[in-house]
Structure prediction request, 622 residues.
Amino acid sequence: MRHNKGLFFGLVIAIFSLTAQLEAQNNTSYWQQHVNYSMDVNVDVDNYQYKGTQKLVYTNNSPDELSRVYYHLFFNAFQPGSEMDMRLQSIADPDGRMMADGKSRIASLSPEEIGYLRVTSLTQDNQAVSYVEEGTILVVELNKPIPAGGKTTFEMTFNGQIPLQIRRSGRNSSEGVALSMSQWYPKLAEYDFEGWHADPYIAREFHGVWGDFDVKLTLDKKYVVGGTGYLQNPEEIGHGYETPGTKIKKTKGKTLTWHFKAPMVHDFMWAADPDYLHDTLKVENGPMLHFFYKNDKEIVENWKKLQPKTAEAMQFFNKNIGDYPYDQYSVIQGGDGGMEYAMSTLITGGRNFGSLVGVMVHEMAHSWFQHVLASNESKHEWMDEGFTSFISSLCMDQIMDQNKENPFAGSYQGYYNLVASGKEQPQTTHSDRYELNFAYGVAAYSKGAIFLSQLGYIIGQDKLMETLRKYYQDFKFKHPTPNDIKRTAEKVSGMELDWYLTDWTQTTNTIDYGIKAVEAEGQKTKVSLERIGLMPMPIDILVLYNDGTQETLYAPLRMMHGEKENPYPNLKRTVLQDWPWAYSNYDFILDKELTNVKAIVLDPSQLMADVNEENNVWQAQE
Ligand SMILES: [Zn+2]
Prediction:
């Protein structure tokens, strides 16, 4: 509940401004694996089956010898009895898209409707290797271990069946998109400083190996294909990819082979439909945008209006985070809501205009927070969904002229609701192992967004935005971890922030500071504050006087060993003594008589996620 809005007297949150200062990074012990995929895949659009070959050159940049590797076989999740099915049947708040009449849609799939992905042969450096399928994971025992720094080549044949669309990918989406092909190929699991991440596909979140993809897709020539990667043969394909005015030669035969290349990505998605419209728009000093959407008169107008907004969003992110590194980005109607992929997104298209822009902005922001800053989102979902939510709230505020007092208010309300429910789990919980989808959603999106907005409260808004830009520069094309964002903020702000990362992301400790007493002390006024919650915070204090004047005071947290700049430069600010966390009580003196004091407010920005705001405001008795 937020009762005290009226008392903030139009104080606005400091403007998020830009001054990049890039320093060379110095994490020399960092390493990551590398993949080089070549795939040649034939898709039968009538029976939804496909066959392919995959050659994978794998470079082991780790200091370890590897005697095993793992592949993800995501489509095996869409079978009755799979872990995804069992989880759906046992969780108290299942995803409505995956349910019908209160029952798991996976449980009722017929053999013709299930998904599968089967490896039919596999060699390592031309020698057959043994492998075993365990649900959505293929476990491969190597003939010869891959030494530290070594390279090996895997070659496989595989076949798959595209499931009825249940979640993210599949055939015949609810909006009639024929093929939404994400998580569709045997994908090597990531090995990093923590070891293997061969997570079964149960519900959500991914972690992949950085590398280069060369993909040939052969399918019915009526279909239009969009997705990750640059098309290598546009003049053969046409369908809106050709240079305008080029005449496409009619080919014999019923199929076309689409050849895509995607450098430095960790996933490859495509979608196809015979009725896609395909528009392009060049962003000024930026990539070419592609739009694929059904020729459906209900949605066409919104999808045309979406195009310049997509360019604006791209420019907003370029400016506030850092330059988008690819030459192409595609917004594609497909999937079951909105999901981010390398150089592209699948979103549902039948939405009102605001919702369509909102989902595009969110998914495009993931290009920075996941497809370039590729945190392990299974383990650190808040760094992906949360940071994406944070920057998309700012972007929406600007490009849709929302001018909200607090663009993150919804995230704070979600977090307060979760705390009140008693169902909160720490953000260190694996994304599949939250008790409730609700608890996952708030921890990842809302509490994750607040990690940044509240960091702005702690170190100052300019330093926050500088932190984001430096974080992007230092960790792009890597797998940043929670400590990396914390260290970046420390380097930028000069403050110690270990306490913040620890309490906010690894515990469910809450913040509750309050005004305990305001008393006359001779000609002056004594204000007594108290810390009730376990989580530490620095405190901004706004004092309003009866003569209409205002001043602010600032009690830095001692363990920060630093102070932020005055967030309200138009008001006088007094920096008080540090508040050592272990002290529950903290007093300070105002240089005015009690009768002059009208009100006192803790954190007028409302960016500190204080779970009890009742005690943040003191008002003089009328
Ligand atoms: Zn997201």
In short: The longest strand covers residues 34-44. The chain is about 20% helix and 30% strand.
